[in-house]
Amino acid sequence: MELSSLSFSLNQTPEIAFPPAQPGKEYLLAIIGGGPAGLTAAVYAARKRTDTVLLTHDLGGQVLWTSSVENYPGFQFIQGRELIEKFKSQVAQFPIDVSLGFKIVSVEPLAKGYKIYLDDGSYFTARSLIIATGKKYRNLNVPGEKELIGKGVAFCATCDAPLFGGKTVAVVGGGNSALTAAKDLMSYAEKIFIINISPEMQGDPVLLEPINKSDKVEFLLNTRVLSIQGTDRVESVTVSNNGQRTINVSGVFVEIGLIPNSDIFKGLVEMNKNGEIMVDCACRTSRGGVFAAGDVTTVPEKQIVVAAGEGAKAALSAYEWLARSGP
């Protein structure tokens, strides 16, 4: 998903109420995931009068971590959270049952349909599924990272940049997300190290140009993070490039890409080597009655508008499948 450098407002909008999901009920369709793909699928399923439940830990997905969006049709500029509120408001116009706040732990195929278990012990059954679980941040998996998450190790400059005013920070990564994080931090941090394992940055030139002009930013290319140090807070990061070097920093922003939220579907549907669910042009997976949409799939170009379009296709495909499969 593409991000921009402008920080979003933290003002909260009134919570939108949805009809509560009914555990144990057999639905025609269960949509798993509440990002742009899942929310769009819910709208299209509702318009087809398909008895649907939306199961998600939260609503919004990666867009909630996006400061602003400048490439979604109909909006020259819109904050990420504001865009999700518009998605939610549209879903709320329809009688879609929603389960929020609980994670799905497993999906079990039945003779006719699927049984979906949540971490609170409840379960739902559905004749058909749409998987729209998106992606999650990739970890460095180095000593100190896990222990210092929330104590200076961060995955969202949009959210946390204001906490590092006047401080020295490191951004790890070389793509658009790393460059966007650096741009967010330039308004607050005194010094920014961009640490990239590759010999050159991979992000778009339009994002790289203003960073190259900043005297706050220092690039450390061909450089690998070995560990992150700190007691109660991040204090330094140790890197390797023709020898080791320890840099004093107050924060480390990890921006090295995303991995699909697909683990619980292993064995249910076919995936590629990256864990993305394989789909055809109609969002069909390798298993009949199971469809997938958005960033969790093999569809290229992980963009909000692409995810929304795929969610629409998945809902229409599920409707056609249910119509053909009979009661």
Give the helices and strands, then pairings.
Elements: E1 26-32, H1 36-47, E2 52-56, E3 68-69, E4 78-79, H2 80-91, E5 97-100, E6 104-110, E7 113-118, E8 123-131, E9 135-137, E10 153-154, H3 157-160, E11 168-172, H4 176-186, E12 191-195, H5 205-212, E13 217-220, E14 224-230, E15 234-240, E16 244-248, E17 251-254, E18 258-260, E19 290-292, H6 304-325
Parallel strand pairs: 1-2, 1-8, 2-5, 8-19, 10-17, 11-12, 11-17, 12-13
Antiparallel strand pairs: 3-4, 6-7, 7-8, 9-18, 14-15, 15-16
Helix pairs in contact: 1-2, 1-6, 4-5
Proportion in β-strands: 25-35%
- Provide the structure class: alpha/beta
Superfamily (CATH H level) name of the largest domain? FAD/NAD(P)-binding domain
Q: Which CATH C-level class of the largest domain is it?
A: Alpha Beta
**Element order: H for helix, E for strand:** EHEEEHEEEEEEHEHEHEEEEEEEH
- Give the mean pLDDT: 91
Query: Sheet with the most strands?
Result: 7 strands, mixed
Query: Which outline best applies?
Result: elongated
Number of strands: 19
Q: What is the count of structural domains? A: 2
* Number of helical segments with 4 or more residues: 6
CATH architecture of the largest domain: 3-Layer(bba) Sandwich
Distance between the termini: 39 Å
Which residues form runs of ≥5 with pLDDT under 50? 1-13
